[in-house]
Amino acid sequence: MNLPLKDIIVLEFCQYLSGPSAGLRLADLGARVIKIESPRGDACRKLAIENLWADENDSLLFHTINRNKESLIANLKDPEEVAQIKKLIAKADVMIHNFRPGVMEKLGLDYDSVRAINEGIVFADVSGYGSEGPWSKKPGQDLLLQAKSGLMFTSGNHDDPPVPFGLAIGDILCGAQLVQGILAALIRKEKTGKGAKLEVSLLESLLDFQFELLTTYYASGKMPERSKTSNGHSLLGAPYGLHQTSDGYIAIAMMPLQDLAEAIDCAALLDCAADDVFAKRDEIKSVLAEHLKGGTSKYWLDKLRANDLWVMELTDWKTLNASDGCKELKMEQHLTNGKFATKCPIRINRQDLRSDRPAPRLGADTADITKEFGLN
Fold first, then answer.
1. Considering 129, 255, 310, 350, which has the largest number of Cβ atoms within 10 A of its Cβ?
2. Is 302 annotated in the active site?
3. What is the DSSP string of 175-221?
C-alpha cells in the first residue's frame, strides 16, 4: 500500500509520550520517523508500566509508543554532533521536540536557526503550558496537567474526591492535535513551499477537551456539578450515567424519561415532566438506583433494547478482547520481535495501517543514517 506520508522525513527530538505519540501516528501514515536520542536514550526507555519490559533494556511503554521508528544517537551538547544533526535537518520535512521552553535555543536548534537551514521545514513545539508566561517552566507531566486543568472534577460523583483519568490523556490528546497541525502545515507546504512553526501544549489540549464544560462556564459563570449518583456527564440530565444493578452496572444514555419508565416498569418516574431531567436530576437518579438494583444487568438490558433505547453493559478488557465485535476490529498486531501492539485505528481505502516493525534499540540506526545522509 502506498501510504500518504511516504517519503516524508520526520525528526523526533522527544521523550516520554506527547511528542512520541505524534511521531508514532505519522509513522503509521507512512512517514520515516528518525528518533534523535541522547547517549542515555529517551527516558521513557526506563519508565515501566506494571514493571513490564520489552527486553532487558527497554520498557513495554517505550516499545508501545515508539514502534516503526529509527533511532539515531546524538549528543546535542557537542557542537560537532549538532553540526551533523543540522545536515540531517536540511533534508527533513518535519521536526518535533518537547523540550522545555528555552532548551532548543541554547542548543542552536530553535525555529529561527532551523529555518535558516531549511526554510520549508515544519517545526513542531510541544510544551506543558505554552512557551511563554508564568507557567512555562512548570513540569509538563500528564497527572500534574490533569490536576491543573480542572479535568479531575468531571469524573466520579458529586461527593467523590477529584478523579484522575487512568491513562495519559493529556499526552495523547496533545500528540493527536499536533498531528493535525503537522498535516495541515504539510498541505500548505505542498501548495506554497512555505514551512511553519507549530505550537501545542498539554494544558491547552486538556482545556480544548473540556470545551462543553468551559463553554457553559463562559456563558453562565458557573461550573457544572457532577450528579450525586450515577454520574456520566455533568451537563446532561437524568438518566444519563452508569447505573448499578443487582449483579453489575449498565450505562444508560440519552432517552425520553417516559420511555425509560415504561420500559423498566418504574411507576415512580411516570409523572416526571420533561424539564425534571435537569431540575430533579439527582432525585430521578436516586429513584433509578433503587429500582435497578431489583434486577440483573441482563434483565434490564433486554427490556431497554426491546424498546430500542440506548444502553450498554459494562465490559472489562478480558471480556471485550474475547468478544466477536472486538475481534472483528483486529486491533492487535504482531511485531517481529515477538511482542504485540495495537494497530493504527485509521483505515485507508478499506485497508488497515499495520507495521510489524518494533521500537528501535537505542542508536540502532546511527551508522546507517550517518552514511546515508553524509553526516560525518
1. 129
2. no
3. HHHHHHHHHHHHHHHHHH---EEEEEEHHHHHHHHTHHHHHHHHHHS
Using the structure block, give the residue that is written with the C-alpha cell 501516528. 25
Please choose, from the candidates 301, 17, 190, the residue with its C-alpha nearest in 3D space to the C-alpha of residue 25: 17
The answer to whether the beta carbons of residues 24 and 67 sit under 8 Å apart is yes
Choose, from 28, 93, 171, 316, the residue flagged as catalytic.
171
Kindly tell me if the per-residue pLDDT of 274 is higher than 80.
Answer: no
Cα 122 from Cα 130, distance rounded (Å): 18
Kindly tell me if the per-residue pLDDT of 340 is higher than 90.
Answer: no
Strand ranges (DSSP E) for the chain? 9-13, 32-37, 70-73, 94-97, 122-127, 196-201, 241-244, 249-252, 311-313, 332-334, 340-342, 347-348, 351-352
pTM across the whole model: 0.93
Q: How many CB atoms lie within 10 A of CB 11?
A: 26
Beta bridge partner(s), residue 252: 241, 311
Stretch 1-26: mean pLDDT = 96
CA gap 39, 48 in Å, rounded: 19
Beta bridge partners of 251: 242, 312
Is residue 63 within 8 A of residue 359, CB to CB? The reply is yes
- Compute φ and ψ for 155, nearest 5 degrees: -100, 165
What's the order of all strands across the beta sheet hosting 122-127?
A: 70-73, 32-37, 9-13, 94-97, 122-127, 196-201
- Split at pLDDT 50, 70, 90, the class of 51 is confident
Measured from the Cβ of residue 90, the count of other Cβ atoms closer than 10 Å reads 12
Residue 15 CA to residue 37 CA, distance in Å, equals 9
Main-chain phi, psi angles of 62, to 5 degrees: -60, -45
- Give percent above pLDDT 70 in the chain: 100
Secondary structure tally for the chain: helices H, strands E: 16, 13
- CB of 118 closer than 8 Å to CB of 195: yes
The three state secondary structure string of 140-178 is CCHHHHHHHHCHHHCCCCCCCCCCCCCCCHHHHHHHHHH
Strand, helix or coil for residue 105: helix
